[in-house]
Amino acid sequence: MAAYSVDLSTGNNYFDLNDILASQEKIPCIFNIAVEGLGYLDQSTPDPDIGVGTKLELPLWLAKYLHRDARGIVSVETPKTYREGYRQILAADPSVVDLHRLGPHFYLGGGKLALFNLPDIQDVLKTLLQTFQGRFRRIMDGSQNALHTDLTNQINMLDESERRLFAAGQRGLLEFQSWESRESEKLSTSSVVLNQRKRKWVGACRDSGD
Amino acid sequence: MLAEKALDLVRELQRSLDGTLPPYNEDKIRQVLEEMQTLFDQNKDKAHFAAEGQTHLLSAIQLRHAAIRRNKRCLLAYLYNRLEQIKKMRWEFSSVLPSDVKYNLCEQEVQWFNQYNRLLANYMRSLGENGGLDLTQDMKPPKALYVLVRCLVDHGEFETQDGTTILLKKNSQHYLMRAECEHLIRQGILEHIVQ
Amino acid sequence: MQADEIEARLLRKTFTLFDFKGLEMLIKDFKRDFYDTLQRQRVLVLVAFDVDALCACKVLQYLFHCDQVVYTVVPVDGLQGLEQAYLENAEGIKHVVLINCGATVDIVELLQPEEHVRFYICDSHRPVDIHNFYNAVQVKLLMREDELSTIPSYDEVFRDDDEESNQSGEESDDPDSGYKKKRFDDESILRRQERRRWNEERVRILFDYTKFTSYGTSVALVMFESAWKLSKDTNSLLWLAIVGVTDQYVHFKTPRDKYMEDIIALQSHVSRHNQRGSDGESLLSVNCLRISFEEELHLNLYRHWTLFDSICHSMPIACKLRLWTLKGQKRLHEFLAEMGLPIVQCKQQFSAMDMTLRSEVKARMQEYMNKYGLENQDIVLPSFSMQFGYRNLLCATDYVLACAATLESLDASSIQTDNFLLASDILQRSNPEKTDTALEAARVQLRSLVSQVQSSLDMHQIISAGPFLYVFVQEGTADSRFFSQPLSLIRLARFTLQAHCSVTRNKKAHSLPLVLGAPLSLDEGTCLIIGIPPLDTDDERKNFFGKAFEQAADSTNMTVKCNGFDSFIIEMRVEDRSKFFDALISILQ
């Protein structure tokens, strides 16, 4: 049931698995200070240290930590997919863009950029909002009205939080239908048991196949 | 890359949270702890020098510290989300976990489950006037006292509240008290047939 | 004889304990004698594997749901299954309902129940075992009273004189002393003579009584009428009763007259439940079940097939036109052409046929049938059809075929009880996909049935043994596996006999019964043998093969198994077959 909570906020949800995954998105960083002994992070040079001016893509969680104090071990740039060029594409027609390819956690990751003082951050955030607004109609439409059509193509283009939204919509529709046909009265086997059984079955098939 | 293994754990859990509980990945957890230990040891060494004035080491210490915190967050999230799942299962299956589910828990998780069980049982006993109230029953509002069920597996004998035993044999149909067989339905032994 | 006598004596003892005459063996008041006694009790329901029983079971389940009677339903496939199911589930059970099983055997003898267990038998198999009938304490019969009029009176089969039993008891205990004592006792000699006469008479009466097996009213109909008397009948239950009655007709259990009688009774219920005003507001939602009476085309599954195929697979018309021959096919083409039905249309799905043609098929057939030697009876069957949701009409005969095909599904992945539940789901109507699969299975069954008939005829395998005809289904052919199940076997036997009669030059064929053998299990080397009565006794549908098989088996000392509830279908080893047939011939001559 928790599966349908769609959390687009940048709020620090410490235990949230999606938040953890989103904070793994990369952001380009430039090192202002040399870091000794951690050269292995930069696979392009055999240098044991990271020198001043090194450009490196770091995950958001790390960049955030290194960037946060005033001294700033690193300074950050806007990631490519949130820059002007992509912003224009998204402004033109948000509904045709493959957001999943741009970053599976496009909104969550984009939201996290607000923590860095990037010069174009206001534009980025505006784009996020407009993109979502532009795409929401289609997501809603697809999840509510096309139960028996193959929507794989559409779903493939959605970012992770959009997918959760889509699934929530579809689930709502299914539950409504089962209520209508009095199916919801039916006590059902727990999904945990069903999945466990399915896995066992698949496992058994594989064993016998080998 | 730093904290990569911890992220694997999170990914693994995320993939299977839609109903199942994956086996407790003891091996990976050990590897993550080892990574944290290494980072910590390195920082301890360097911190010593940094305190003596070699401030150029501070940046590396901070970076490693960030990695340690990241690892910690991933591990805690892994454990926490598993516990949430286990808690949910208490409500899905009653106090006894199916053996194949139990098999995927680590010992501490089993202990936690038992304690949670006890707490819940005590609380339920304290409810109401006489003898408590089973909160796990009627998770959906019941429409009838009795339900028609079909037996999906050869389960063997089952004793009802009035003391009679019923043989639950595959494909036999029974009309039983809803309260008595709800758990068996949840566990996939019986199938509820809606008329 | 000795055994019979002892048995009669034992029973007499049991009965004298109770004032038997005050007790009713028949359930006359369904509510008082049956329904009310089951309230707040746990009931075990044992159901035979046939469509009628399944329907009756569903009606009963509905009644139990209304009043929250707790029960367990177990399908049973034969006497062994019955015994096992009872043993497994008997614990704590005081009331057992038997549906379409158990009436023809002494149920108390078979199951050895504890004294407080009561059996309620609702079974269309006849004759009812006299022990069931006269054991008014433990066994109650739920059937129509007028159908039990042939049962021998109590005094004819059981004797009540205690003195006699004591004496003969001593006699058998100690023959020598008894012999001496009574040697000159005239009175006793007279009494013994009289007794012997009575015994002979008893055997004769019992033989006459059990000579023929037949079927009574459909159990689904009996159950439905009981529900009606409780004012608990619904349209859905009515449909179940219709399917039950139709099942009896489709599987040649009841003659056409009896079928018509039941249909007329059902029709009044149908109009009661489906009465609608013509104005718009009383229109039912599409999701309601609607049943209508119709002079239905008696063509199997034609709504779900092509008209052409359907005609070729329907017994009356296929036999009259001999559709398995080239000439027959020509005649059919001619017939269709004369009716103005283009062959292209007839060979596509009926639902895709031209609307106007579709609606006129029946009228045109009736118009031209006489020229082709067809009678109205061959083409039209008064029946019912139902509509539910937006789906096609389903008529009762197709429904029966679909259910029977599901019950006897040969799907290797499912066990027999799976089929029972699946058929039960189809009767529930909730899942149209399952119904479609079942209809497809029925088509496959019909195809294999007709091709089997055709090959028997083509290869002249139907042979006259003098008093009867016989034919064997060849082992190992692709279709033979279909006929290892009773319902398909009955239909095959009947189709074969009818087809044979329509081609043979032998005038006597109509008065000859048919015995048909089909392989059951190749591994165990067993086969099924079925005997069906001759066509000219068709308005009675009484079968004497149950008794004949029994006697043939006795005279050859063979072990044959009659595991189903129909005694005219038996199972035996393939190698015993010829010996068995010799015995059968000498008995029937």
UniProtKB/TrEMBL annotation, chain A:
Q: Which InterPro entries match?
A: GINS_A, GINS_bundle-like_dom_sf, GINS_Psf3, GINS_Psf3_sf, PSF3_N
Sorted keywords for this record are: DNA replication, Nucleus
Its primary localisation, in coarse terms, equals nucleus
Q: Where is each GINS subunit domain found?
A: 85-179
- Taxonomically, which superkingdom? Eukaryota
* Subcellular location as annotated: Nucleus
List cellular component terms (GO): GINS complex
- Keyword Nucleus attached: yes
The record describes its quaternary structure and partners as:
Component of the GINS complex.
Family to which this protein belongs: Belongs to the GINS3/PSF3 family.
Protein name, UniProt field:
DNA replication complex GINS protein PSF3
Species annotation: Elysia crispata (lettuce slug)
TrEMBL record, chain B:
Q: In its UniProt entry, what is this protein called?
A: DNA replication complex GINS protein PSF1
Q: Which UniProt keywords apply?
A: Chromosome, DNA replication, Nucleus
Taxonomically, which superkingdom?
Eukaryota
Say yes or no: keyword Nucleus present.
Answer: yes
Biological process (GO), any one = DNA strand elongation involved in mitotic DNA replication
Q: What is its main location?
A: nucleus
Instruction: Outline the subunit composition.
Output: Component of the GINS complex.
TrEMBL record, chain C:
Q: What is the species listed in this Swiss-Prot or TrEMBL entry?
A: Elysia crispata (lettuce slug)
Please list the residue ranges that the record marks as compositionally biased, kind Acidic residues.
159-176
Q: What is its main location?
A: nucleus
InterPro entries from the UniProt entry:
CDC45
Compartmental location: Nucleus
Q: Cite a single Pfam family from the UniProt record.
A: CDC45
The name under which this protein is listed is Uncharacterized protein
**Region listing for Disordered, in residue ranges:** 159-181
**Which PANTHER family does the record cross-reference, listed alphabetically?**
CDC45-RELATED PROTEIN, CELL DIVISION CONTROL PROTEIN 45 HOMOLOG
